[in-house]
Write a structure and sequence with these properties.
By secondary structure, the chain is of the alpha+beta class. 24% of the residues lie in helices and 43% in strands. The protein has three helices and seven strands; from the N terminus they run ββββαβββαα. It has helices at 48-56, 106-116, 121-134, and strands spanning 2-13, 16-20, 22-29, 36-43, 60-67, 75-86, 91-99. A six-stranded antiparallel barrel has the order 1-3-4-7-6-5. 17% of the residues are buried.
Length: 144
């Protein structure tokens, strides 16, 4: 097993991403034959309903996370919530899941996003250069 620091997390909610404000988090690659990952996040109480509903209804949720360094590409996981524990000042949420797409295509997704926003020519190049460094979160489309 390998453990990594969780830098950020977003939940896919319809066709948008919900940023989850984190106090701390970690992600573990179990390195098993099923490709299982464990994600634990310590977050504010206000996010409990997002996770509790999925837990109570045994629903899969898609989370997008950045691991180790903010500059890293986001990785999308299809997960199930194992448990939600309300602590004094925060909540602990444990998820288990699988990586949805091991190979990152972030530059392609960023370019697609910028083109959809109407950027062209020199303005497109400038925006792309800036955003490839700052790495704004872009929703990874669901596979049908």
């Amino acid at each position: 097993m390998k453990t990594f620091k969780l830098i950020s997390m977003q939940l896919a909610d319809d066709d948008a991403l919900v940023d989850i404000e984190m106090e701390d988090g970690l992600i573990i690659n179990k390195e098993d034959e099923k490709g299982t990952w464990l994600v634990e996040v310590f977050t504010d109480h206000k996010y409990i309903p997002y996770f509790q509903d999925a837990c109570d209804n045994d629903k899969e949720i898609i989370v997008q996370v950045v691991i180790t360094k903010r500059e890293n590409d986001p990785a999308a996981f299809v997960t199930k919530v194992c448990c939600v524990k309300k602590l004094k000042t925060h909540a602990s949420v444990l998820l288990t899941g699988k990586l949805t797409k091991p190979k990152s295509d972030y530059p392609e997704k960023l370019l697609e996003y910028l083109l959809d926003k109407g950027y062209k020519g020199e303005e497109l190049l400038t925006e792309f250069k800036e955003k490839i460094i700052t790495r704004p979160q872009i929703l990874q489309p669901k596979k049908v």
